[in-house]
Design goal:
alpha/beta, Ubiquitin-like (UB roll), Rossmann fold, 3 domains, 5-stranded mixed β-sheet, 7 helices, 26% helix
Amino acid sequence: MNASWKILAVLGVIGVLAWKFGEGIRPYSSHVTPIKYVRIGGVFQHLTKDEIKNTLSPLVQAGFLATDMQSVHDAVAKLPWVEGVEVKRVWPDAIDIRVGEKTAFARWGENSLITEQGVIFSPRNVDQFLILPKVSGPALQEQKVLEIMKGVTTALEDQAMILTEFAINDRWAWKIRLANGMEILLGREDQLKKLQRFLRTLQVMGPEQADAIAIADLRYPNGYAVTWRPDAPPVDWSKLADPKPVSEDQTNRATQSKKYGKKNRT
């Protein structure tokens, strides 16, 4: 007699995922209690029915008492999107499995993702996460690299800039790429100090000049070098370095014009 059993996966707001096996399961001896139900609870966005089904199918055919719960646990835990697993027998013929799913915080390198806690994993569907920032760094330094990246992101967001790539090489030199295409080279020393100094100068330059920068090389101790985009308009550095002061007479006339609703043309 073939044993039939169902796997139920509760997907929170996504709904209930269920399937039933009636073929390909070997006959059980009369003295072996078969597993009829495997219930999987959890809120899933990226775990798929086929992944869970294919993982569990060969492991639950030994019967209720003979099935190794540790093997079930370890097999499910190895799935790329699984964060944590709890497994228990439920008398007389069921197994309950609780699964937690990872949340991708950023891309790690070309083919992996990383959680906010610094756990790297490599699912098959990385391409759908291109909207996330790309991060890379030395091996076994994922958490440290991620914490640095968070600080850099905050500093950039204060200036309405969006980080798209952050890389630290094996020599601990930093490189940043922004959503507007600008690349920032920070070197190996005083990186945050140099970045903050650079961001302050961008406020003086204005958004048009800032958007015209292709590469900002901040590896110098007391300044930085800029490579402009090919279509960037020329910058009058003398005006930026020594802006024309506003005279007292101009200030008074501007105040009077504002008072009487006139447009200041000085």
